[in-house]
Amino acid sequence: MEVKKAMSKPEHSRMFLSLAFVGVGLLAMKANAEEYFTIQDGELQRPTGYREWVYVGTPVTPNDMNNGKAAFPEHHNVYIDPESWAYWKDKGEFRDGTIIIKELVSVGSKTAVSGNGYFQGEFIGLEATIKSKKHNPNEPGNWSYYSFSTPDHAALTDTAKAFAAAACNACHQAAAADDFVFTQYYPVLRAGKGTGQVATGGFTSSLK
Question: What confidence tens digit (pLDDT) does each residue in 137-156 have?
Fold first, then answer.
């Protein structure tokens, strides 16, 4: 018959501390899930540190190619928060709590030593989109859209209120490839959808 040895007080204390650290770790993980954005009184606080997030691409629809009247003539540097990127490459879905940042940059020089093109100029704005059941329970896909750009595009506001859903969601719902997000224009997101380690780059020789 196996006789179980009673734990000494030091052993019991060490086990208690271990469980306590596990509990603290779980609480930290839960806290980290929302650390990428803060909404207070219906206003989104301007996120910081987003250039350290995962960069997914820079589309541009210049005036020169749209009869001088492009709806969005600037470059859009787009970033997704790290936790949502991890979820995307694992599940192939945007998690509840996703925040995507769009940094607006003007078209600057159109010539370079490499030839003619559209090169980035100056920063002219900052926008964000958030997927949140908590904050957007009645919006399509639970997405909301924000702009921190001042009217003259010379500075940024500290907070931003969400646009009316109809101002953005109709276009996203009609044309976006994945859950109101235009993933078809971002090869990093396309390649990363549910592909796990392959999503991080360098693990396959295929370009398809």
Answer: 999 999 999 999 999 999 99
Please name every residue paired with 116 in a beta bridge, in sequence order, or none if there are none: 111
Length of the chain: 208
Q: Residue 90, class by beta-carbon neighbours within 10 Å (0-12 exposed, 13-18 middle, 19+ buried)?
A: middle
What token pair was written down for 9? Answer: 């007080």
Report how far residue 208's alpha carbon sits from residue 195's, in angstroms, rounded to the nearest whole number. Answer: 13
Please give the Cα distance from 189 to 57 (Å, whole number).
9
Confidence of residue 16 (pLDDT cuts 50, 70, 90): very low
Residue 10, SS3 per DSSP = helix
Q: Minimal CA–CA distance to 72: which of 162, 145, 144?
A: 145
Instruction: Give the chain's count of helices (H) and strands (E).
Output: 4, 10
Token reading at 70: 């492009």
Q: Residue 68: is it exposed, middle or buried by C-beta count within 10 angstroms (0-12/13-18/19+)? A: exposed
* The pLDDT of residue 74: 97
Which is more confidently placed, 20 or 124?
Answer: 124
